[in-house]
Task: structure prediction
Amino acid sequence: MNRRPTLLAALTLTAAAALTLSACGSDDSSTAKDNDKIAGADTGGKASPSPSPSVPGAGSRPKIELPSDVTYEFQWKKTGDAQKDAVLNDAEQRIRAVDMAIAKQDPLDKAYRFYSEGTAAAESQKYIQEFVDHKARTTGLTRYYNESLTIKDDGTAALVYCEDQSKAFNKFLKTGKTDVSPVTKDSYVVYAGTLRKNGDGVWVTERLISQRGSAKCQP
Result:
């Protein structure tokens, strides 16, 4: 059973994000498989302290604290463009924030809502709730790579990237058991997201789709 299995939440596709995925040259269709999911579910150990009761402004971003067994390799390259680098940074923080919410078993955690709005925030909440319902988290290393980023004329950003889940597995909180599964093509996932800079200067993810087994992401 791979990380983020069908047992847990599937992601609902949006047409706009699907168009983004196609436009960026993905080898996948816009139809997701049953085990599509929102990025960032690696969590573990003890819950982190809750952020401030109110969502903080850009000057006081939420602190992301994760269990030591949740690790990442973000291989996204610095572009040298301040705006694009800010998009990549905030997209990374959203991934970490969703992971933290699952670690805390809190579907309404403020941190991931700081970095997401609209459909992406709603689907993240559902996704985190599934982990809470099953008393599950993930453990191990997740790698992010092969990113493609475009700032559009309307001010939104289109971000496509790959995720390697081959070294990340499900862990169940009651038993402490880690379900180590073999690596398959479905261990590699492509994502397409739409981000917009909000009034606080944060690049929030508004829409996000994913598809497992993408040829774009295979090693």
